[in-house]
Specification:
single chain, 6-stranded mixed sheet, 171 residues
Length: 171
C-alpha cells in the first residue's frame, strides 16, 4: 500500500497597488508619477525554502539602479534585496521561510518606484513581470510561478499653434 500527499504550491500575485499614493488608481502613468507595486505570496500549510522573487520592471520607464536600496521591512523574515541593472530587476531573496506550526501565511511586499522622464511612445502598454521561485525540503527548485501586471504610459502632448496675436498696422 502507499499514500500520497499533495502540498499546494504558494499562490502568487503582482499588481499595481497605487499611483501617487492613490490606491486602485487607473494604471495610466506619466513622467514623475510614483508607482507602488504589490508582490504577494500566500503559503497554504507548508514552509518555503530558497524563496526568491525577481521583479522585472520595464525600461526606460523605471530604473531600478536609480531607485537606490533604501528598503525598510517590518516583521520577521527580513530578506536580502538587490538590484540587477542589466535586467532592470529587483531581486528579493528570503532563502528559507519557515512558518511556525505549518499553518500557512502571507508575504505581502509593497515598493514604490518613480517614473522616469525619458521620452517614449504615448499610450504604450507595458508589462511588468515578477518571477517567484521556491524549493522543497530536498533543496531542489521545484516551483516557478510568473505573475504580471500592465501599465499604460502617458507622455506630454506637444501642441504648436500658429496665428496672429495682434495686427501691426492700424486703420
Amino acid at each position: 500500500s502507499s499514500a500520497a500527499l499533495a502540498v499546494p504550491p504558494p499562490e502568487t500575485a503582482k499588481e499595481v497597488y497605487a499611483i501617487n499614493g492613490v490606491i486602485g488608481a487607473p494604471k495610466d502613468i506619466a513622467p514623475g508619477d510614483l508607482v507602488t507595486y504589490r508582490l504577494r505570496l500566500e503559503v497554504a500549510a507548508t514552509d518555503v525554502n530558497d524563496l526568491t522573487i525577481e521583479d522585472f520592471l520595464p525600461l526606460p520607464v523605471f530604473d531600478v539602479d536609480g531607485n537606490g536600496t533604501g528598503f525598510v521591512f517590518d516583521g520577521a523574515g527580513v530578506p536580502d534585496v538587490d538590484t540587477r541593472g542589466a535586467q532592470n530587476a529587483l531581486v528579493i531573496d528570503f532563502e528559507d521561510f519557515e512558518e511556525t506550526g505549518a499553518a500557512g501565511g502571507v508575504i505581502d511586499l509593497l515598493y514604490t518606484v518613480p517614473t522616469a522622464d525619458t521620452p517614449f511612445a504615448d499610450g504604450l502598454k507595458l508589462v511588468n513581470q515578477a518571477v517567484f521561485r521556491s524549493g522543497d525540503s530536498q533543496d531542489v527548485i521545484s516551483n516557478t510561478q510568473i505573475a504580471i501586471d500592465e501599465i499604460t504610459l502617458r507622455q506630454p502632448t506637444l501642441s504648436i499653434n500658429k496665428g496672429v496675436v495682434a495686427p501691426a498696422a492700424t486703420g
